[in-house]
Amino acid sequence: MELKEFAQDMKTAIQERLGEGYDVKVTEVMKNNDTMLTGITIQREGENVAPSMYINDTFERVERGEVSFDDAVNRLVDMYDSHKRPEINVDFFKDYDNVKDHLKICMINTDANSKLLEDTPHLDYGDLSGIVRFEFPNDELRGGTIMIKEQHLEAWGIDANTLLQDAMVCESNRDYRAISMNAMLEEMMGEAAPEETAGGMFVITNEEKMNGASAIMNDQLLGDLAEKNHSQYLAVLPSSVHEIIAVPVPTKDEAIAMKDIVQSVNSTELAQEDILSGNVYIYDAESREMTIAGEQEPMKVVMPEKKEAERTQVADKADKAKDSNIRKFSFANKIQENKGVADKANEARQAEKAIDAVKKTEPALG
Q1: What SS3 class is residue 29?
Q2: How many helices (H) and strands (E) does the chain have?
Q3: Strands 122-125 and 301-302
Q4: Secondary structure (3-state) at 132
């Protein structure tokens, strides 16, 4: 059975189970790394919130025989019933003034998200791009986000640069934490763990531990961490889109050697939509610059206005080259035209000489 067929069967079964007054749909959502997920969306009549439950993993479990189709349907319906659906007045989202103080930047891989980025405003940072999400401020939907698309900018009457500048302000006020790997493990086991900032390997993320890899642009945090560890260099590993790992290293070469570790974790431990990059980054505390390990050019935050200016410069150069070629072509044509006139004049002179020569050789008439 294919996923599409499975999704339609799930939709039909859930619709029959819930009965009238419910609208059940199959949806496809593009997630990070151009990963397309299939979901079931259920909306009860009169409600303006419709939760979407992804079924890709459920499909695989049914295919492997780990769970029956009927059990899968029951679990999705139970999940829907247990989901609290607060009434939300979505009119607030129409006014950008209500939105701009609740933005966050989420880092993703540029090359792996070419389709998603086509209609998504973003900044560039090395091989990464920063997209913007709106975070719901109310407690009922805390953790819920909306990815900002070009259509939102058009509705608000703003440009991408305004959005990203406001998002950067929000990021500057966001709390990030650097915690040692040992302390992180203790915390995961439910034990109180001190927030160590010296020695070893450090996990850096935000308080929510969601989409926290934007800490890679936090110069203050990285600089402080390097200083406390008396290290000029930090090897920055893109653990996932949710966090980065910083390791104090004595030389850049040690950071470069960690690339195999990153790529191994990406291929064996992470879900496709959680992968950030296969590169390792090097933070230099003296120059306050980040580079991709093995490269010389420091990474810079490139905003849309600069990207547009660069595109305009490229276009101008192309136009100038085109104009130059046209002028060269026109000049060549003019030379060719003049040459043609000269050739015709020369041919006429040669013809006159030939006629004169013939006349001289003809016998005189008398």
Answers
A1: strand
A2: 11, 14
A3: antiparallel
A4: strand
**Total domain count for the chain?**
4
Q: Give the 3-state secondary structure of residue 109.
A: strand
Look at the block and give the residue holding tokens 């049914």: 62
Q: What is the DSSP letter of 338?
A: H
pLDDT, tens digit, 9 for 90 and up, residues 45-95? 887 778 889 999 999 999 999 999 999 999 999 998 887 566 666 778 889
| Residue 335 amino acid letter | I
Same domain, 212 and 278: yes
Write the secondary structure of 249-286 as one string of H (helix), E (strand) and C (coil): ECCHHHHHCCHHHHHHHHHHCCCHHHCCCCCCEEEECC
339: containing domain: 304-366
Phi-psi region for residue 159, left (φ > 0), alpha (ψ -120 to 50) or beta?
Answer: beta
- Nearest residue to 47 (alpha-carbon basis) of 83, 77, 76, 14: 83
In this structure, are 218 and 252 located in the same domain?
Answer: yes
Distance CA 231, CA 214 (A): 22
Q: Tens of pLDDT along 173-211?
A: 999 999 988 777 777 776 655 555 556 899 999 988 999
Question: Both tokens of residue 262?
Answer: 């990153």
Q: Name, in order, each residue with C-beta under 8 angstroms of 249's C-beta and a sequence gap of 6 or more.
A: 231, 233, 234, 235, 255
Closest CA to 224 of 285, 300, 170, 301: 285
Give the H/E segment covering residue 309: helix 304-361
> pTM to 2 decimals?
0.76
d(CA 366, CA 352): 25
